[in-house]
Amino acid sequence: MRVSRAGIIFIAAIAISACSGIDRDSAKALGTTGVTATQALTDQATAAQKTLSELPEWWGVHDALVCANTASGPLRTACLDTVRQEVKQSQSATPLTKAQQQLVVVMKKRAAAAGALRDAYQAFTDLATYDAAAETEKSIQTAFGSINKLSAAASAIAPAGVVLPAISTTFTAVASGIGAVIAEQRQKQLLLSASRDLHTACDAMVKALTVEADQAASESLLSTLREEQDQLFSTFVQSGLVAPRDALSPLLSEIAPGTQMVQAPPAADADVINTAVVISLSERSRRQQAAIVASYDSALAALKELSAEHAKLEAGQPVDLTTILAQANEITAILNGLKQGK
Description:
This protein is mainly α and 342 residues long. It has one domain (5-339). It contains 12 helices and no strands.
């Protein structure tokens, strides 16, 4: 029996549907969750690189405020002259070590890659809603380009012999190779291809973030940042710009919300109060170090969960987005806590 051209197209559409097996609603839900998770990753990466980039300013301000403890006159003038000279030198040559400079580069590229991946997830969500093939193609290409730049930067700080490979999108080839099939089946085929690309992107981000996290830990960078923050805060207190009572206010608000400290504590208790300030700052820094490590762990967990859910989607299995959202919320909560100095 001879089959008409329309019949051939219909049979081809059935074949594509059987091979794709992707659910549009699940794809849309995964895309929306991916946007939420990658936005949290973008915020975490941006905060990390911003803090490290500010180190030279911290050092300069710290050294200048230390001069407040020098008696007025020639000694204070000499102290300030030294600080000014160091600032001039740092403007021509960054005081960051080579390892720190490379880490700043990785963090900046991770922030860009996470932002591009967020846009790709938004396009994936749109693709599950309407014909957004052109938008998806462009955003995936941009995301892959950013991730490849991140991988190259991460390879520069990775252990000897470790090179993170570049990734290539297949979406363009699939989109151009789909023949004349009904719109719904074309959409499912494009969603499958886009999911596979996003799956690849998440795996590449995991590798790069693992290198960054390991390098930060091996260089004791997190500890250094917290120590520098402690020292800078202490100079604010010692110079009289910040009252010791203000340094202890966050602790008081946690244990007794709404309680107000006295405006002028007894001068005779200054040594007691200053000791309490040192203890509070030290413990707060220890908690913040642990929080930063936790933010890396949550970011890695979110990316791994995204990868796992893409595998389910591509296999036609139900997706579970609860864990991804929990990790994204955890990252946001950690960042908010760090901003508030908790």
